[in-house]
UniProtKB/TrEMBL annotation:
The lineage of its organism: Eukaryota, Metazoa, Spiralia, Lophotrochozoa, Mollusca. Residues 27-623 form the Vitellogenin domain. Keywords: Endoplasmic reticulum, Signal, Transport. Its main location: endoplasmic reticulum. The keyword Transport applies. This is MTP-like protein. It holds the Pfam family MTP_lip_bd. InterPro entries: Lipid_transp_b-sht_shell (IPR015819), Lipovitellin_superhlx_dom (IPR011030), MTP_lip-bd (IPR045811), MTTP (IPR039988), Vitellinogen_b-sht_N (IPR015816), Vitellogenin_N (IPR001747). It is found in: Endoplasmic reticulum.
Length: 845
């Protein structure tokens, strides 16, 4: 379901069209030229049909007349006055509805003009931002060069690269790209898959007569998938780019969070996490929090209506990502306790998924970790969250040079070196892995090669390299990974060797490396399960990695590679992936990976869900069950190469490639018996969180001076539950992992001005769940195991609203289009061997 919404963020378009008709033929000092001006701003779906009234464009039209008067001339420069004499606002959807813009005609605008270039601009103090922006838009049209080529200009849209093409009296001006000079309050998710793509185009055609502008026609298109010498007025000196109109919150436009929480509290209860209803309520509270200060947020968090939904409000507070919200959360939470850890741990979980974290958040986390919280769970959650926050922070490259990043690096290395136990070192290795900082590469490799380290340390350290950019895993590091795979320096657990091989195959692998790994699989028949797993993994990776696929296809022409000895492995391990869902923009894939021990006991299994597009892969979810030392519990002989280990099993979980604290099921035979007797037979929630996937705010400064704002918020609500039934008498077990999820996306592209509003709003929402069921029969050897993964029928709802209203109109207009797409239920194919096992195990069921 994750990819179903991708196209929605591209569906709106915005067009601004301007036309000027001139009566004069040239500009003379002291002479006034009269012009008419017409500009339209339209909103609709891109490529949308316009058959019904609800499908037609909405927007506003401004028509005015203005005087263009050069007041002063000297050294080739002119001081020009622009005075509007008449202005009318008209509805684009309701042609007969219009009103006069009387404020537009009251005050003039002055600007410096030389050789077709606009210099300084002076507005009269007291003129509104809206009126000033419209006048700046007109002034910007006079910025014109009479020579062909590319140049950089400062105009109404910011600093723009403009291309000029000239044909006789016709000049075509095309803006190639503009840098918005206004950055405060604007942000985006730097994750490519979940980011918002926008594209813009702007083309203007000028007709000249006697070396002056006679007419201009053109359009802006934006898709989301700016020292008078003498005056009687006080003047404001400014640049040409347009400025946003500051819209203050009123009871009609902004809801206080204290008032809203009582209305949505039933939608935010824990039982509804993982539903679209919960995600919608999350976004409503998020918008209220972002429009509020610290005191209002604190009052909401501690109100009577919030008492049963504090955990969900912590998700909202963290996603708000403002200094005020962070201060309110810090006052509420206590990280010094060793009990009642639910709220601090929920805060840390949500913090790991901030989309544009600020310095203030990192400084708070650093201070708390530096003070060494007494609870191990808090300390681990804090370290892992801090690593994830640093990774998001460094997605903006210039931020990664800031002092807070250096402080994090120094603190993690200092506390890692001070550890006296492996459990402590594992905590910081996991934090390093979440951060993806290349500065940790040497430390991670030292942990991998440590001869005293356990299999868990080796596996965790190799996995910690997953986010480090490939250019930092050079030839020297690749040679170390090959030594780990071949065990030339020490003996490694098979899961560590498999992880090293996978990393090698994914790092711009070479032909020689692939040959090396393939031939090793043929010769290492003592570890036939590992050889089987590696070969299956190579084939699976090649399906989505073109470079690896080309290498493999080339090698299959070689009989020494393409032969029975290599490809006919006898193990039961498997690696398989397939499509979860498919769209025009991206595919969601699922992968199931199972590594067995030599005895036939499961050693490690994992399920991955990824979104893949033409440019990148985003890891959505990965959960894996690990086990070691189980042979002694079922009467089998342990692998002599891996030594005898204490019986252990647990769960590792990554969401959006952020490693979360692992969950240990049991350790030792006593722990196993306790787990058996206390195993939940009814589904129990193991993880709940609601987080932002899309978080985008951008403004388009149009050529007519108007400013359009694009905001997109997308929330995903997750509830991971599980149940298990174990019978020691019948020697079998059944388990269920249910991953419930809901996604809600809200996007708005609108003109929000003092004189009126127009725009388009879309929402998309859907919810579903995936069940992963496992049946195991360990009564006889070899053990039988059947895995099933299925999803029920689900629906995805799309709503598209368009609106326009203005203070000059006696009524407003709104249209709504609704669409529902249905997705059939599905049972997913996992692997041929799994299908055979299921037939044998479930034959009597």
């Amino acid at each position: 379901m994750a990819a179903e919404y991708n196209y929605i963020i591209y569906i709106y378009f915005l067009v601004a069209i301007l036309a000027i008709q001139g009566e004069s033929v040239h500009y003379e000092f002291g002479k006034t030229y009269k012009y008419t001006y017409d500009t339209k701003i339209l909103f609709n779906e891109e490529s949308g049909q316009k058959e019904s009234r609800a499908q037609q464009d909405v927007g506003l039209r401004i028509r005015l007349e203005f005087d263009f008067t050069p007041l002063f001339e000297g050294d080739g420069s002119q001081l020009v006055r622009l005075q509007v004499s008449q202005a009318t606002l008209t509805s684009m959807h309701r042609g007969g509805m219009e009103g006069q813009l009387l404020d537009m005609v009251k005050l003039p605008l002055y600007f410096e003009y030389q050789d077709g270039e606009v210099g300084r601009v002076w507005a009269i103090e007291g003129d509104s931002v809206f009126c000033t922006n419209i006048k700046k838009g007109i002034v910007s049209l006079f910025q014109l060069q009479a020579t062909a080529g590319e140049r950089t200009e400062l105009d109404i849209s910011g600093e723009c690269k403009s291309m000029y093409k000239i044909s006789g009296p016709t000049i075509v001006k095309q803006k190639l790209e503009c840098d918005n000079m206004e950055i405060a309050g604007l942000h985006s998710n730097k994750n490519e898959v979940f980011g918002i793509s926008t594209r813009s185009s702007s083309t203007w055609t000028y007709q000249l007569e006697n070396s002056v502008i006679h007419s201009v026609m053109g359009s802006d298109r934006h898709v989301a998938a700016l020292n008078i010498r003498s005056s009687n007025y006080p003047l404001l000196d400014m640049l040409l780019p347009s400025a946003p109109e500051v819209q203050t919150c009123t009871p009609n436009t902004c809801t206080k969070p204290q008032d809203l929480v009582g209305k949505v509290k039933e939608s935010l209860v824990s039982e509804k996490v993982g539903s679209a209803e919960s995600a919608c309520a999350f976004l409503k509270m998020l918008k209220a929090f972002r429009n509020s200060g610290k005191e209002a947020i604190s009052e909401t968090l501690t109100s009577h209506d919030s008492s049963y939904i504090v955990s969900q409000l912590l998700d909202v507070g963290v996603a708000t990502q403002t200094p005020g919200a962070q201060r309110a959360l810090m006052e509420l939470l206590n990280f010094e306790e060793q009990k009642n850890l639910i709220y601090p741990l929920r805060y840390l979980l949500a913090t790991a998924y901030t989309t544009h974290p600020g310095d203030y958040l990192i400084k708070d986390l650093l201070a708390m970790l530096r003070n060494r919280p007494p609870s191990r769970e808090i300390k681990e959650g804090m370290a892992l969250a801090l690593g994830a926050v640093i990774y998001s922070y460094c997605r903006v490259p210039e931020q990664c040079q800031n002092e807070v990043v250096k402080e994090y690096e120094s603190l993690i290395l200092e506390q890692y070196k001070a550890c006296s136990s492996e459990e402590c070192r594992l905590l910081y290795i996991r934090s390093m892995g979440n951060s993806g900082l290349p500065q940790f590469t040497d430390t991670i490799f030292e942990a991998i090669r440590d001869k005293s380290g356990s299999s868990m340390m080796g596996f965790t350290a190799v996995q910690a390299l997953r986010r480090i950019p490939g250019q930092y895993i050079g030839e020297l590091e690749q040679q170390v990974l090959l030594k780990i795979f071949h065990q030339t320096e020490r003996t490694y657990d098979s899961s560590v060797r498999a992880s090293a091989a996978e990393l090698l195959l994914g790092q711009n692998t070479s032909k020689s490396t692939v040959i090396n790994i393939l031939l090793s699989a043929m010769h290492d028949q003592k570890q036939h399960e590992l050889s089987t797993f590696i070969l299956r993994k190579i084939v699976d990776l090649a399906r989505y990695d073109k470079q690896l696929r080309d290498i493999l296809l080339n090698l299959l022409n070689d009989p020494s590679i393409n032969n029975y000895n290599i490809w006919a492995q006898r193990g039961k391990s498997s690696a398989f992936s397939s499509l979860l869902t498919e769209t025009a923009d991206a595919n969601a894939t699922y992968g199931l990976y199972m590594e067995m021990a030599r005895s036939g006991v499961m050693k490690k299994s994992a399920m991955d869900v990824n979104i893949v597009n033409k440019d990148s892969v985003q890891r959505l979810l990965s959960f894996g069950i690990y086990a070691s030392g189980l042979e002694s519990l079922v009467g089998e002989t342990p692998d002599p190469e891996e030594g005898e280990e204490e019986a252990t099993a647990g769960l590792g979980l990554k969401i959006l490639d952020v490693l979360l604290p692992p969950v240990e099921f049991f350790r030792g035979s006593g722990g196993l018996m306790s787990a058996v007797w206390n195993a939940p037979t009814e589904p129990v929630s193991a993880l709940q969180v609601t987080m932002l996937l899309q978080d985008h705010s951008e403004r388009f400064h149009l050529g007519n001076g108007l400013v359009v704002e694009l905001t997109v918020l997308g929330a995903v609500s997750i509830d991971l539950t599980g149940a298990v039934s174990i019978s020691l008498w019948n020697r079998n077990s059944q388990s269920l992992i249910r991953n419930s999820g809901a996604m809600v996306i809200e996007g708005t592209m609108k003109l929000d001005s003092e004189m009126g509003q127009a725009g388009a709003v879309f929402t998309a929402e859907g919810e579903s769940y995936i069940d992963f069921e496992t049946d195991v029969d360990f009564y006889n050897t070899p053990f039988k195991m059947c895995m099933q993964m299925k999803r029920p029928k689900t629906s995805f709802k799309h709503t598209f609203n368009k609106f326009e209203k203005a203070t000059k109109f006696d009524r407003k207009y709104k249209s709504t289009l609704r669409r529902v797409s249905h997705i059939d239920g599905l049972s997913y194919f996992l692997s041929p061997k799994n299908s055979d096992e299921c037939k044998a195990l479930l034959v009597d069921k």
